[in-house]
Amino acid sequence: MAARIDHLVTSGTFALDGGEWDVDNNVWLVGDDTEAVVIDAAHDAAAIEAVLAGRRLRAIICTHAHNDHIDAAPALADATGAPILLHPDDLPLWRQTHPDRTPDGELADGQEITVAGTTLTVLHTPGHAPGAVCLYAPELAAVFTGDTLFQGGPGATGRSFSSFPVIVDSIRDRLLTLDPATAVRTGHGDSTTIGAEAPHLDEWIARGH
Known about the structure:
The chain is an alpha/beta fold. Helices cover 24% and strands 35% of the residues. It has seven helices and 14 strands. The protein has helices spanning 45-52, 67-70, 73-80, 91-97, 164-175, 194-197, 201-207, and strands at residues 4-16, 19-31, 35-39, 56-61, 84-86, 105-106, 112-115, 118-124, 133-137, 142-146, 149-150, 153-154, 183-186, 192-193. Strand 8 (118-124) and strand 9 (133-137) form a beta hairpin. Helix 1 (45-52) packs across helix 3 (73-80). The radius of gyration is 16 Å and the shape is globular. The mean pLDDT is 97.
């Protein structure tokens, strides 16, 4: 049986640079009936564990280290024994939320993570955060973009550790080159496709966000 994608929405608080915002986060699970990985353990470890439903959790993959994407990661790791994986460029952000707990492994551009016979390829896509990554699964016709690409444009770049020119380069060079039919599974909000977003790149550049 091929891997499937499970989707959970959790709610909590995003905090950065002294501000706080209420947010809903997409949590994605890729796996089969026996094992899975979690992409972004946001807000509610118990709810994520319920969706796992006893499956072996192979890894907790962090698309970046803003607190709303990692706040439940240590609790989920403690409950399941799964390692937390993060790109090392996001360690400064990680330490703002979890100063006493380090990730268990590093993500690197081009790294392949296999679960349930399906390969997720790590694409380093800085801009929203220095260590932001996307996970491309061509067998599932999907890319998990965290907060790098949304329906309607790039992730926010107005706060610390972010850069609009860098995120534009990441989206142009790493994401818009994928098959247009690829589903974009985002960190917040509705999914979209590469083909739906690609024609709007020049508009985003012109508006500056």
